[in-house]
Design a protein that fits this description.
Order of helices and strands: HHHHHHHHH
Shape: globular
Largest sheet: none
Oligomer: single chain
Radius of gyration: 20 Å
Distance between the termini: 21 Å
Length: 223
Amino acid sequence: MKELIHKDVCVILQTVKRLLILIPIIQIFLLVIIAFESKTDSGIYMLPVITYMAMFFVFPFATYVQDEKNGWFRQGFVMPISHLNYYHAKILLNLICTGCAGLISIVISVISALIFGDCTPKVIGLIFAAAGVMLLISVIINICSNALIIRLGVQKAAKVIWGNILIVNLPTISGLLIPLLHDPKKEIITIIIRVSILLGIIVLGVTVLLYILGREWIQNLEE
């Protein structure tokens, strides 16, 4: 499995090199936003964490694209490599990369808070909370995308994943938050919490189901 992870790390490093030009521009943009918003919203220091960790959501697709381009499913498994090891290596790689992105973005957020004199326990707590949530979202997207890529291919899986996020998830979250912003009453908060818990259970169930199906689908490639 180490060799599989090393193979994909090399692909990711090549992808990161292409982003090195954009990262300073993104960071300057983030610092400008923080400078304007930090006086009124301490949660703004979560922005670097959310931004940089979200950038790593696409990397599972990048490694699969390279595998498809190189004909991995036709030639790679000629070597004594377990299909399940390949499947789990993809999940583990994403966890490692997202974890590294989380640590780097936490440091950037804390330094930003120190620069603007807002490094309080509340701000630190918000930064770590954002990193935890983004890590959870990354794991869910990665597990679901791995299974769907094996079944549908990279392009169709990407359309399904991002189409679901843009068409279903974001409107749902916005629909939950808009009433709270207009009328922040206890009853509305209670309803939102209950609906959020229900959605979380559904997402967790779908993730576990796709993980199990993904194991079966990739093992079927051996037949």
